[in-house]
Recover the amino acids of this structure.
């Protein structure tokens, strides 16, 4: 079963009188992995936050099919950037993964054996089952990223929002995450990934969204991820273009 | 009257029970206050209830329910005022908290001192500021028990929502968890705990019972369940010890409890099993020992290669003071890496260990020049540090990445990997 597309119609976001996103029109389809790229300050995270209802939008409309984001909260998994997490927090790997079950529980209800089994199952899937009792700060960067991936899986979400999941992780983790993302896309889920390494865009994603406050282009990698579009997105920063050629 | 007799009297029993309950509830709730960086709010709320108490006293006299409702109302007014100023005045958030709570507190203090001139008025400012646990009545105790039950049940049922909204409020929100409702629930629990702590420790020191045991517990464990239990226990112990101390030394109980809580905290800062300072110093000493031993081996190896190894030359070549050097040489001798008599000489085991270090140093120098692009005179210190801190598999990876070089940037040979 595939879930409704995300429709972004003429969305603008302004922070303190400064326009961060300007008149964005975009449709995000289920079953595809989208890479969201653009220079620093292009509004990538803001677009995420707008879709998730975390920032107020000045104008425009965002819909999940016919419905608002509120109807889909249970099925939304957000994997934050690593430096937004307080790694000294007294929480274990298992604690974090179990949080994926919270949306299915009444606020006063206890977690049961089935929740724990699901958590252990997804931990096994990301290769972290042996670390379930570790405090989250005791893990390497890659392991930390896999734990948050496991939480998203444990939630059984339909919409996955990942903010730079490949930043500062080892190759094994990178491949593992990509493998899982491809699997999720095959199952008809919607995947949106903020990414900054242009060299890997065509390998990881089905589609690309090029953003620099305005939407520069969006579509299949082959037709959209062209030199010209990349140049338009990054403006004068030609060193990045150079990197793309390698 | 000796202390055993005192403790058998009814007022002391009541004080002990009330103190224990307040210690436990403050300890439990305090964990979330500390983890949410809300220490200042806890302090602010406790000070701010004073005008509510005074107003209740004026309206309905010395009535517990009145005091309770008055405090809660003052707490709500405070939160509303803070939110309004934070959203409408361009003042920093923590400054607004400070402005509002000192204003509320001052109004309360002025009210009490004004009313104290009226005949028949029995409010003592000191009791509010520092508590009056020894004057606790049965009705006060009943309220404290009731509040403790409500707070503990509240925390049990709200545990998961509090956990996730404390750890990652943004993500909790995207998952559909009512972050704001959880926040207000916590603020309500906080307000009623403050009311119950009013008689025990007073408004000024509630914050000590909230944040000190919790901070101690956070030094002792990094599992949230355990942190909560420990914090409750530490709160309990601080309250009981503080009360005993105050009876023994005939001082005010509230401050004695706060002092006890701080004492336990300071002990934890030094002696906590994993996060304590003593443990950290031990780790640093062990690290220094490792580096010194490795430097001795490496220097001895170079000297032995040149045919110059001896205690006298080693002392001049190495920056370790002679007495420590001699001690460490004895240590290496017991590890069977160096022979001390007739003069120094490395054993085969010592040589192979030293070669591994030279290999690490020269691989790092090569890496820093070839891969990072540093020049030859920039690399020595960094390589000197890295050679002591690189596990074998990391070195192998560097070796492979460099294409198994045999000469370092200074032209010295890189020893091959052993074994």
């Amino acid at each position: 079963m595939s879930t409704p597309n995300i429709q972004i119609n003429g969305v603008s976001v302004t922070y303190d009188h400064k326009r961060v996103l300007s008149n964005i029109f975009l449709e995000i389809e289920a079953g595809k992995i989208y890479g969201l790229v653009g220079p620093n300050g292009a509004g990538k995270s803001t677009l995420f936050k707008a879709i998730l209802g975390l920032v107020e939008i000045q104008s425009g409309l965002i819909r999940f099919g016919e419905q608002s984001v509120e109807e889909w909260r249970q099925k939304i998994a957000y994997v934050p950037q690593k430096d937004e997490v307080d790694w000294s927090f007294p929480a274990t790997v298992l604690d974090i993964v179990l949080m994926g079950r919270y949306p299915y529980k009444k606020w006063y209800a206890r977690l049961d054996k089935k929740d724990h089994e699901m958590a252990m199952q997804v931990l096994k899937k990301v290769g972290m089952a042996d670390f379930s009792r570790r405090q989250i700060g005791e893990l390497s960067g890659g392991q930390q990223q896999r734990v948050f991936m496991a939480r998203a899986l444990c939630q059984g979400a339909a919409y996955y929002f990942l903010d730079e999941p490949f930043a500062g992780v080892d190759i094994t983790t990178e491949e593992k995450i990509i493998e899982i993302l491809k699997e999720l896309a095959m199952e008809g889920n919607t995947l949106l990934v903020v990414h900054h390494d242009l060299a890997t865009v065509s390998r990881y994603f089905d589609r690309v969204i090029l953003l620099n406050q305005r939407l520069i282009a969006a579509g299949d990698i082959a037709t959209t991820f062209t030199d010209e579009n990349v140049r338009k997105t990054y403006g004068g920063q030609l060193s990045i273009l150079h990197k793309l050629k390698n | 009257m000796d202390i055993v007799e005192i403790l058998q009297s009814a007022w002391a029993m009541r004080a002990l029970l009330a103190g224990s309950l307040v210690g436990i509830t403050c300890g439990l709730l305090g964990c979330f206050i500390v983890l949410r960086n809300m220490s200042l709010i806890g302090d602010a709320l406790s000070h701010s209830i004073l005008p509510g108490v005074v107003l209740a006293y004026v309206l309905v006299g010395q009535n517990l329910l009145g005091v309770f409702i008055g405090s809660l109302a003052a707490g709500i007014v405070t939160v509303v005022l803070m939110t309004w100023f934070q959203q409408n005045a361009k003042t920093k958030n923590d400054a607004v908290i400070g402005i509002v709570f000192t204003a509320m507190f001052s109004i309360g203090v002025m009210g009490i001192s004004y009313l104290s001139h009226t005949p028949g008025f029995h409010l003592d400012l000191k009791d509010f500021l520092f508590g009056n646990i020894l004057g606790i009545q049965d009705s006060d105790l009943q309220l404290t028990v009731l509040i403790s039950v409500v707070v503990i049940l509240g925390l049990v049922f709200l545990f998961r929502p509090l956990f996730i909204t404390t750890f990652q409020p943004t993500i909790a929100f995207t998952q559909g968890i009512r972050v704001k409702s959880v926040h207000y629930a916590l603020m309500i629990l906080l307000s009623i705990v403050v009311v119950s702590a009013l008689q025990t420790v007073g408004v000024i020191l509630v914050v000590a019972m909230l944040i000190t045991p919790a901070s101690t517990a956070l030094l002792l464990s990094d599992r949230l369940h355990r942190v909560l239990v420990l914090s409750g226990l530490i709160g309990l112990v601080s309250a009981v010890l503080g009360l005993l101390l105050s009876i023994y030394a005939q001082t005010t109980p509230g401050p004695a409890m706060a002092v006890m809580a701080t004492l336990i905290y300071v002990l934890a800062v030094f002696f906590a099993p994993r996060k304590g300072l003593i443990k950290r110093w031990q780790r640093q000493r062990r690290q220094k020992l490792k580096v010194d031993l490795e430097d001795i081996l490496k220097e001895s190896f170079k000297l032995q290669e040149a045919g110059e190894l001896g205690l006298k030359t080693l002392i001049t070549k190495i920056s370790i003071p002679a007495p420590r050097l001699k001690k460490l040489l004895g240590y290496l001798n017991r590890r069977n890496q160096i022979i001390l008599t007739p003069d120094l000489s490395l054993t085969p085991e010592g040589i192979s260990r030293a070669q591994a270090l030279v290999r690490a140093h020269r691989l790092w120098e090569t890496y820093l020049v070839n891969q990072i692009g540093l020049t030859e005179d920039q690399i020595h210190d960094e390589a000197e540090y890295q050679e002591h801190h690189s596990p074998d598999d990391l070195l192998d990876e560097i070796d492979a990445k460099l294409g198994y070089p045999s000469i370092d940037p200074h032209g010295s040979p890189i020893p091959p990997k052993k074994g």
Summary: The mean pLDDT of chain A is 90. Chain A touches chain B at residues 52-54, 70, 73-74, 76-78, 80, 84-86, 88-92, 95, 99, 102-103, 105, 107-108, 111, 135, 137, 155, 161 (CB under 8 Å). The radius of gyration of chain A is 18 Å.
